[in-house]
């Protein structure tokens, strides 16, 4: 199948691999980006997909917390300039309050919520008419806690990255905030391995087996030794995905799990939004670059 310039650009941004390597990986994997990432990793060309999801769009995320309830939401715009506009910021606040005071479960339900202009959707339409850019409510999540739990929150770069944690076992609000900062800065996917689906573990094991198969220095190792190496690599790769297994950002001699234990605390849940995560921006002149490369 024909591989497009956009596909090569996306894979390049996700892995940091060279243009030709990305094109070859996509060709070998019939255009499947996820398989191409694994192919590059197995060949030693790309590191673990730490850049996955970093394709950016503009806008801001926001956290609103009152009592035992919090809402996290993301509103997108076409340019970063508009995300600093007073009308845009007012719309972000209005959406946060409307959703907070509701039981909305979906974006569609949220946009139907009543506001001074009619519905939240009418407010978005009004903002678009004034600002002149497409503005959308992309996603939101309502988080609730019990009386004996704490919220921790952190907003980075005015709302480019936001994180909320629910922590129990401690009355120290700083512990909850530190965990929110950890989530925002170190990007875990799960609280612990206990939450990790088995298919994620199985997939990582397959990738590591592929890497080993392409490593001639390990070819003559006994199978038992190979199995041990694979399990060690799987464990190391997956630990960065789990909050409690990560190095604590304020003291790299500690794991987050150790820090929490020292404070008799436990993270129950976290929510993290990175603005534009997974949204592909407008293509520039990359097609011409690829065309020139192919000549």
From TrEMBL:
Q: Name one Pfam family in it.
A: EF_TS
Asked if the Swiss-Prot or TrEMBL record annotates the protein with the keyword Protein biosynthesis, the reply is: yes
Superkingdom of origin: Bacteria
Region (Involved in Mg(2+) ion dislocation from EF-Tu) residue ranges read: 79-82
Entries under InterPro entries matching the protein: EF-Ts_dimer_sf, Transl_elong_EFTs/EF1B, Transl_elong_EFTs/EF1B_dimer, Transl_elong_Ts_CS, UBA-like_sf
Q: Which GO terms describe its molecular function?
A: translation elongation factor activity
Q: Which GO terms describe its cellular component?
A: cytoplasm
What residue stretches are annotated with the Translation elongation factor EFTs/EF1B dimerisation domain?
Answer: 70-277
Q: Where in the cell is it found?
A: Cytoplasm
Q: What is its main location?
A: cytoplasm
The alphabetized UniProt keywords are: Cytoplasm, Elongation factor, Protein biosynthesis
Described purpose of this protein according to its UniProt entry? Associates with the EF-Tu.GDP complex and induces the exchange of GDP to GTP. It remains bound to the aminoacyl-tRNA.EF-Tu.GTP complex up to the GTP hydrolysis stage on the ribosome.
> In which family does this protein belong, per the annotation?
Belongs to the EF-Ts family.
User: What protein name applies here?
Assistant: Elongation factor Ts
Gene expressing this chain: tsf
């Amino acid at each position: 199948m024909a591989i497009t310039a956009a596909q090569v650009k996306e894979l390049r941004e996700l892995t940091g691999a060279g243009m030709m390597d990305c094109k070859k990986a996509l060709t070998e994997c019939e255009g499947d980006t996820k398989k191409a990432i694994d192919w590059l990793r197995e060949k030693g060309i790309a590191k673990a997909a730490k850049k996955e999801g970093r394709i950016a769009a503009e806008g801001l995320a926001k956290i609103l917390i009152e009592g035992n309830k919090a809402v996290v939401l993301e509103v997108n715009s076409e340019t970063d300039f508009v995300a600093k506009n007073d009308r845009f910021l007012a719309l972000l606040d209005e959406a946060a309050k409307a959703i907070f005071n509701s039981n909305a479960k979906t974006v569609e339900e949220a946009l139907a919520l009543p506001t001074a202009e009619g519905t939240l959707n009418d407010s978005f339409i009004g903002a678009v008419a004034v600002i002149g850019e497409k503005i959308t409510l992309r996603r939101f999540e309502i988080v609730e806690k019990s009386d004996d739990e704490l919220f921790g929150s952190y907003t980075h770069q005015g709302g480019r990255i936001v994180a909320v944690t629910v922590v129990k076992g401690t009355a120290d609000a700083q512990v909850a905030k530190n965990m929110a900062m950890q989530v925002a800065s170190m990007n875990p996917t799960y609280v612990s391995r206990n939450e990790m689906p088995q298919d994620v573990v199985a997939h990582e094991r397959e990738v590591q087996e592929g890497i080993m198969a392409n490593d001639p220095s390990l070819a003559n190792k006994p199978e038992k030794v190979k199995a041990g190496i694979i399990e060690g690599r799987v464990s190391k790769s997956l630990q960065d995905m789990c909050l409690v297994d990560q190095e604590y950002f304020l003291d790299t001699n500690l794991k987050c799990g150790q820090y929490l234990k020292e404070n008799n605390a436990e993270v129950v849940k976290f929510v993290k939004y990175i603005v534009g995560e997974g949204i592909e921006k407008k293509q520039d002149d990359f097609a011409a670059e690829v065309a020139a490369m192919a000549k």
